[in-house]
């Protein structure tokens, strides 16, 4: 079966030097907005993925639900700004005439996973989600807009960019596993994923 319409996979979009610059920017923003383990709504069970955000809004989850908010749930501080290279990436690939408002930073230790889900907390569904992978490779799973649709498995490698627009925007997806030892970009085994999102509908 074909990938959903609106799925664009830009393999090797960022070269090694650009990836290293992005990692440095992520380390600086994590110093200001520490990674934490969000809890799932209702159950309060913590995700294995560690998260933080940059931008005017950030995605958070706790026992009361999922939402976007302007401050870090642990420190209470505003999220740090989105690094310029990521704003430039959005301008280049998003095909949407307004900037992203949130960049979710996911940190996967080698044993972390992300179950199949849909990104549906953004009011602006006409804008794509733009993803950047850094560090160890991930086995990524992409389905359709129904949980019962068939899924495909793909490898996401450091430097890859994925644009999820159109019919792919509301597709089910998740991360089955991390492949430790597949990259030397980071000083520790694991993977960083950055997702740029437009949250609000522009006036
Ligand atoms: C397909 N992140 O943060 S990135 C997420 O690798 C998330 O950390 C994964 O799913 C990760 O929500 C996957 C690629 C991605 C991002 C958003 C999508 C694929 C998507 C939205 C719709 C369909
Ligand atoms: Fe997602």
Automatic annotation (TrEMBL):
According to the UniProt entry, its GO molecular function terms are: broad specificity oxidative DNA demethylase activity; ferrous iron binding; methyltransferase activity; oxidative RNA demethylase activity
- Please give the GO cellular component terms listed in this UniProt entry: cytoplasm
Keyword vocabulary terms for this entry: Dioxygenase, Iron, Metal-binding, Methyltransferase, Oxidoreductase, Transferase
* Cofactor names: Fe(2+)
The domain of life is: Bacteria
Provide a GO biological process annotation: methylation
Q: Where does the signal peptide begin and end?
A: none
* Xref: InterPro entries: Alkb (IPR004574), AlkB-like (IPR027450), AlkB-like_sf (IPR037151), Oxoglu/Fe-dep_dioxygenase_dom (IPR005123)
Q: How is the cofactor bound?
A: Binds 1 Fe(2+) ion per subunit.
Q: Which residues bind 2-oxoglutarate?
A: 106-108, 191-197
| Major enzyme class | oxidoreductase
Please tell me where Fe cation binds in this chain.
117, 119, 173
Q: What does the entry list as the binding residues for substrate?
A: 59, 66-68, 121, 147
Protein name per the record: Alkylated DNA repair protein (DNA oxidative demethylase)
